[in-house]
Predict the structure.
Amino acid sequence: MKRIGVLTSGGDSPGMNPAIRAVVRKAIFHNIEVYGIYGGYTGLINGNIKKLELGSVGDIIHRGGTMLHSARCPEFKNPEVRQKGIENLKAHGIEGLVVIGGDGSYRGAKALTEQGFPCVGIPGTIDNDIPGTDVTIGFDTALNTVIEAIDKIRDTATSHERTFIIEVMGRDAGDIALWAGLAGGAETILIPEENYDMNEIAERLRKGQERGKKHSIIIVAEGVCSGTEFAKQLKEATNLDTRVSVLGHIQRGGSPTAADRVLASRLGARAVELLIEGKGGRAVGIENNRLVDYDIIEALSKEHKLDLQLYKLSQELSI
Ligand code: ADP
């Protein structure tokens, strides 16, 4: 393999930049040329492809977002459109592609591989919802953003003796809600993986008030319902007035944490090694602090499992 490409696709996440940097530097270290595809699969079909040098990825390790930009490209589900992308890659002499993104991006990478173009997937999403890895690039940074927000909301919640509902991202996964809720000391965490019992939540709030608690923090994963919707349900059940905070896209930004930079560097370098070994159609990940790789099809068919022990713990610690 003499020339590879790299792109970022789907929802961006902090840590995509250090992953791009690792791909570029590791490849150049092995005398492989690297081309950046700008704007995800849209850039691929439009031929928005430029050579990256060592210096092209200088000064990005600490920056959120992605220097290659990202996009959603619904037409990429069409095999003829993908073929156009493959032709653009071949026109530049590119023989393998690293795709950094979420499960949708993996499906695109899988489809390209099945059409004969070897791709390796790197899990880049704040949602932590990719199977075949304990953790995705961007999850740790998003968690830290969320707990910073929870800590601030806790200050005002205490001053005014209020109950706050904080809606966090995660799509269909409850990982951000669970981890941030646990780390932020939330009283109640609602995740899509578990049903909630409004009576139990009301009882918990009542007990807290009885023992003189000044505030309550309820974290709602967007995969359950909106924070506003939950506030309405809680009002109907308890007549309690709450304040709702929707953290939104701030969770996708910010300088990647050390954990995300290290993870991105390791996974980026491993993806290049796999292409060098001629192993296309793989997805890299980390399990028990060891780098792993799976067939991208197999990885997607596995189910991402949220750590329900953590959920149990969060309930035990918020009695
Ligand atoms: P993420 O990668 O963050 O999950 P999306 O689900 O939006 O984000 O997927 C990113 C892009 O991947 C889509 O816009 C599309 O171009 C491509 N993609 C998603 N699903 C498929 C599929 N089944 N086949 C081919 N390409 C796909």
